[in-house]
Structure formats: C-alpha cells, structure tokens
C-alpha cells in the first residue's frame, strides 16, 4: 500500500476496534476483548516510547519503570482505601478522576528526575543508565514490604470508580482504553507535527547542528522524555486497572525490552507502527505456545522463547522497518 | 569492627566478580563498538557447566576447567553467528539483537537444565576459614576468589601493556579503522577478544557457583550491576572497570550489611528495616547518579570509542 493509504487504514482499524467486543461476543469468546484491551494499553506505552526513540533518537531501555510507577500509584491508593489506613495523612481513594491523573503525574515526575540525570549522557551510556535506573525502581518496589514486595499487590477494592461509567464491566473498560489510545495517538501526532516535534526530529538527525542553531537541546530532549514517561504512566494506570494486580515484575528490565521490541516490530519512527507492534507482540506471546501445542511440538510449546529470540534477531537484522514498512512502502522522495 | 572487615572483604569479592564480567564487556565495547547484553549469559553458562561437570566428576577443578572452554566456545559462536553482523549497526540494533540472544540462551538453558536451581558445594580443599588478618576468620574459598581475581587482573594488565596482542587491543580501542588499515586481521582480533571476554565471564560464573544458586537469570543480575560499574568507571577503560567494580562491590555489600542498623539510630526499627532494605538495594544506583552529576563520562574516561 502506498503511504497515502495510512489514514483510511487507521480509520478502518478504528471501526474494527469499536465493533470488536460485539464480534468477540458473537464469536462466543468474550475473553478476546480483554486480550485486545491489553494490546490497546501496551500500544499507548509503545507509542510513548517511540516518541523519544523514533522521533527523539533516545534509546531508553527503562521505559517499563514509568509504566510500573503509574500502576503502583493506582494500586497503592486502592490498597489504602481498602485497608482504611492513611497515606501521608490522606485517605486512599479509587476515584478515577483523582487517581489517574495522579498516576500520570507521578510517572512524569519520575521521568523528569531520572531523565534529567540520564540525558546528561548519550549513546551507549544512555542505554545502560536508563536500564540501571529502571532496575533501581524495580528494587524499590521489591523492597516495599507493606505493598506486597516481591509478590505484588492485588487491588481488592476493584477497578477505579468513574462517575457515570461502570469500569468493572470489561466491555466498558475496553472502550475506555480505546478512547485513551485514540486520544494519546492524536496528541502524539499533534506533537510530532508541531514546532516542538520538528525540533526533536532535528535533534535526532544532528544534535550539534540544532545546538549550533541555538536550540536548548537538553531541555527539548528532557521535555520529550517527560511526555513519554507520562504516556507510559497512563498505560500503567490502565494496566493496573485491567488486571487489578501490580507487581515489581511490571518494572522488570525484560518488560522494557518487550516495549522496545513492540516499537521495532511495528516500525520505529511512526505512530501507527507501535500499535501494530503491540498487537503483533502480544498475540505472538499468547498464541505462539498455542500454535506449537497444536502442532504437537510439546517441547517448543513450553519453551516458545527459544523460537521467539532468534525471530527477534532476524527481524532486527533483516526487517528494520517493521510491520509498518511491510504495509506502507515508502514512495520515492519520501525521506 | 570484625564484622566490618569481613563485609569489606565480601564487598571486594563481589567487586572481583563484577570486574571479571565488566572487563570483557568494556573491552568489547571499547574496541568493537558493540554493546552485548548477552555477556551475562556467558557468566551463566560458565556457572552451569561448572556445576554440572563438578557434580558428575566430583572435582571442582575439573568443573572449572570445563567451564572455561565452554564459555569460550559459546562466546565464539555468539560472535560468529550474531555479533559479527552488528558491528556496523547502531546501538539500538545491537541492544535488540542481543536481547533476543538472551531470550534464546535463557530458554535453551531451561530446556537443558530445567527450572530448578543447581547447587554446588565449596570444594573440600577450600573449605573452612583462615585468619589472614589476626582475629578475623574468613572463608578460604572467598579468599581464593579474591586471589584468583587479582591474579587475572594482573595477567590482563600484563597482556594489555606488555604484549603485541595487547598493543593491538589498545590501538584498536583508540582507532580501529587505522589498525585495520595497517593490515591487522581485525576480524580475528575481534573473535579472540570476544572469546577472552567470554572466558573471564565464564570463569567468574564458575567461581560464583558455590556461593549462589545457579539459575536462569543470574547472568542478567550481574549484567545490570556491570553496567553500573562501566558507567561509573568509564566505557572502554580497564582501570575504570577495576575501580568501578571494587567501588560498587564494597558499597553494595556494606550498604546491605549496615544501612538498616544505621537508620535504626534515628527511626523505629520496623521502619528502619523496610527503608534500609530498599535504600541499600538502590545504593549503587544512587552512587552512579552522583558520579554522573560530577563526571558524566565516568571516573576514567577512555580516550576514544566512548562516544
């Protein structure tokens, strides 16, 4: 497909996603709706990562940390509500209009603090440092014994409460996730097209040139890093509500790797790509074992990663442009 | 005081492990410009092979001697099949491809050895304690690790500063295109260096076997600490890796041992244990943050290659 088909493709995709819960129900498998909700949530995280990775050229290997922070804000406040105890003298809450922005804000602050440090470096250092700081947050949550430590924290009070909307209903929650994904996608598209986005892409192409032109490069990169952190925080908030469970595992460095893979698999430097990547990754993760099971390859069914790892290497080596590149071939003179 | 010295030695010993892994990683990056996430897997392979062979033959020495070629072989295969294709790629590709390697190796190890951790006894000859500092008994095995680590570090230093290969390595880390242009078989040098790095990591893994449980994921734990070491020490610098390793090893060990007790001086014991536990596991990362603020390129930045 030529690139001009991207918009119709997206609209068709959106219509399909809107109709999906009914299709799933008609097919007699409402469970699919939950799987797709998970895909939508991770798509938000992947888009937010691609904003700094694909457009800003910052290879952050610690993106799951901000997702985990957002998720933990929701779960900890829910824990205090259920427990009846106070947190910093305030009662816990599960009122979504309070908790959700708070989760996003805390993630943004975490991204601001760590990003301010990480962005003092670049290249290979940046990769290692983002990874290391994410691991630091991982250990922080492991050590919070009160909130379950290693074992994680169940949200016994259930999902957050939204006025007029019953989030406990899986179909309703699915639409909330979809709405947030569409909103975040449009926001990022506006950011990428804005002056800020142009400067960011200029920095990716040649940081020195942008600095020489007088742009405060560091501040631009940090601002993008914080926006990405907030986006991941939003995904975390939704993910905690989706599974009603959080654990340090959400911040584990392999999860950061997973989000990175989603971006690459879908197509780096595009906003549609990460959505495709999230879908492809999570579906592979879920159905690769099933497929091997059907082929009665029992050894591979339990150890599907032994196939997935080399697949990833091959994709990196030979299919750089990802699914987006497969779907929308670049036209001549298209950069 | 007794406990303090003992913990310092424990920290030194952790530092030795970190150094053995970090030295290979930092050299590989300094010269080849490749970041290899799967370096920790070589540590794990060393540990698994040592544990298996030791349990089969009953001799730790045989296990150790088997682990070294096994790790080297694994390293050469990894270099030949994957890493070789990554030299000209950007860091993102390297990170992702070697992440794929980790997934593969971890799963393959699970297929061969299962999910239950292996345990390895300290060899009989090195059991018991010794008082190298009068009044402070310390396990012989840990002393042996420290001694072996220092020996390897000295050997490495001799090879790098006194031999022709070492000269090429140093030249390569300064300007690899020039070295290649001067007619050195750079791809052979790369493979050799990769094998050497693998041997060091495998050696560390084999030695760590009796102290920790040998399990999948042990490689990544040490890998991430190694990143902290390299960031602190400066990429491509052996000296930086040595100083960074000891620093991280000692700070981490002392923090875990004493931080909760120190906090107990001015807060409730239950809180002190909780906060102290969390803080001590974050301590090395905070150390890294401080180094970054003061010297963004690490304590001993290498002349080139780090950019």
Describe the structure.
Chain B: It is a multi-pass membrane protein. Chain B: This is Branched-chain amino acid ABC transporter permease. The complex is a heterodimer of chains A (335) and B (307). Chain A has 335 residues and is mainly alpha-helical. Chain A contains 14 helices and four strands. In chain A, β1 and β2 form a beta hairpin. In chain A, α2 packs across α10, α3 packs across α9 and α10 packs across α11. The two termini of chain A are 17 Å apart. The C terminus of chain A is likely disordered. In chain B, α5 packs across α6. A two-stranded antiparallel sheet of chain B has the order 1-2. The radius of gyration of chain B is 20 Å and the shape is globular. Chain B has a single domain, classed as ABC transporter involved in vitamin B12 uptake, BtuC (Orthogonal Bundle). Chain B has eleven helices and two strands; from the N terminus they run ααααββααααααα. Chains A and B meet through α5, α10 and α13 of A and α4, α9 and α11 of B.
* Share of β-strand residues of chain A: under 5%
Runs of chain B with pLDDT <50, length 5+? Answer: none
Work out the count of structural domains of chain B: 1
Major beta sheet, strand line-up of chain A: 1-2
- From the structure provided, what is the oligomeric state, counting identical versus distinct chains? heterodimer
Counted by DSSP, the helix tally of chain A is 14
């Amino acid at each position: 497909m030529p690139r001009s088909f991207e918009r119709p493709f997206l609209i068709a995709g959106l219509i399909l996603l809107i109709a999906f819960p009914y299709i799933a129900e008609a097919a007699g498998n409402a469970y699919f709706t939950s799987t797709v909700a998970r895909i939508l949530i991770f798509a938000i995280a992947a888009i937010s990562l691609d904003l700094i990775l694909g457009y800003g050229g910052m290879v952050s290997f610690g993106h799951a940390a901000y997702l985990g922070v957002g998720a933990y804000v929701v779960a900890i406040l829910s824990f205090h509500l259920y427990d009846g105890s106070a947190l910093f003298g305030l009662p816990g809450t599960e009122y979504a209009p309070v908790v959700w922005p708070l989760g996003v804000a805390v993630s943004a602050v975490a991204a601001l603090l760590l990003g301010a440090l990480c962005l003092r470096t670049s290249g290979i250092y940046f990769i290692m440092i983002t990874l290391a700081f994410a691991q630091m947050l991982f250990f922080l949550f492991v050590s919070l014994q009160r909130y379950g430590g290693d074992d994680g924290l169940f949200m016994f009070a259930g999902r957050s409460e939204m006025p007029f909307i019953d989030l406990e209903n899986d179909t309703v929650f699915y639409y909330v996730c979809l709405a947030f994904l569409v909103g975040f996608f449009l926001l990022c598209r506006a950011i990428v097209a804005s002056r800020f986005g142009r400067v960011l892409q200029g920095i990716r192409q040649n940081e020195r040139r942008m600095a020489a032109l007088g742009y405060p490069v560091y501040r631009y990169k940090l601002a993008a890093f914080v926006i990405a952190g907030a986006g991941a925080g939003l995904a975390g908030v939704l993910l905690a509500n989706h599974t009603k469970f959080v654990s340090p595992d959400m911040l584990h460095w392999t999860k950061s790797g997973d989000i990175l893979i989603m971006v690459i698999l879908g197509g780096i430097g595009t906003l549609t790509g990460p959505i495709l990547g999230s879908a492809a990754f999570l579906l592979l993760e879920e159905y690769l074992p099933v497929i091997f099971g059907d082929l009665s390859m029992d050894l591979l069914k339990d150890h599907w990663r032994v196939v997935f790892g080399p697949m990833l290497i091959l994709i990196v080596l030979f299919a750089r442009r990802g699914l987006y590149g497969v779907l929308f071939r670049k036209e001549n003179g298209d950069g | 005081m007794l406990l303090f010295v003992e913990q310092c030695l424990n920290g030194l010993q952790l530092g030795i492990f970190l150094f053995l892994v970090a030295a290979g990683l930092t050299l590989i990056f300094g010269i080849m410009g490749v970041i290899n996430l799967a370096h920790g897997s070589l540590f794990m392979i060393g540990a698994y092979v040592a544990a298996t062979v030791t349990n089969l033959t009953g001799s730790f020495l045989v296990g150790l001697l088997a682990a070294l070629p096994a790790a080297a072989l694994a390293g050469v295969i990894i270099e030949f099949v994957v890493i070789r294709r990554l030299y000209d790629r950007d860091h993102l590709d390297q990170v992702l491809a070697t992440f794929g390697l980790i997934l593969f190796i971890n799963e393959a190890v699970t297929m061969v050895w299962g999910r239950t951790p292996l345990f390895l006894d300290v060899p009989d000859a090195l059991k018991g304690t010794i008082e190298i500092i009068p009044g402070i008994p310390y396990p012989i095995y840990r002393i042996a690790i420290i001694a072996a680590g220092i020996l390897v570090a000295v050997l490495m230093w001799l090879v790098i500063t006194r031999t022709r290969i070492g000269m090429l390595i140093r030249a390569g880390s300064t300007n690899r295109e020039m070295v290649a242009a001067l007619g050195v078989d750079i791809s052979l040098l790369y493979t050799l260096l990769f094998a050497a790095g693998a041997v060091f990591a495998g050696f560390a893994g084999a030695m760590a076997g009796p102290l920790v449980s040998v399990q999948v994921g042990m490689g990544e734990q040490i890998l991430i600490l190694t990143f902290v070491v390299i960031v602190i020490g400066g990429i491509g610098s052996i000296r930086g890796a040595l100083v960074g390793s000891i620093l991280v090893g000692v700070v981490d060990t002392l923090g875990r041992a004493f931080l909760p007790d120190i906090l107990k001086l001015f807060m409730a014991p239950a809180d002190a244990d909780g906060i102290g536990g969390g803080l001590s596991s974050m301590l090395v990362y905070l150390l890294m943050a401080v180094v970054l603020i003061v010297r963004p390129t690490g304590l001993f930045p290498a002349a080139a290659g780090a950019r």
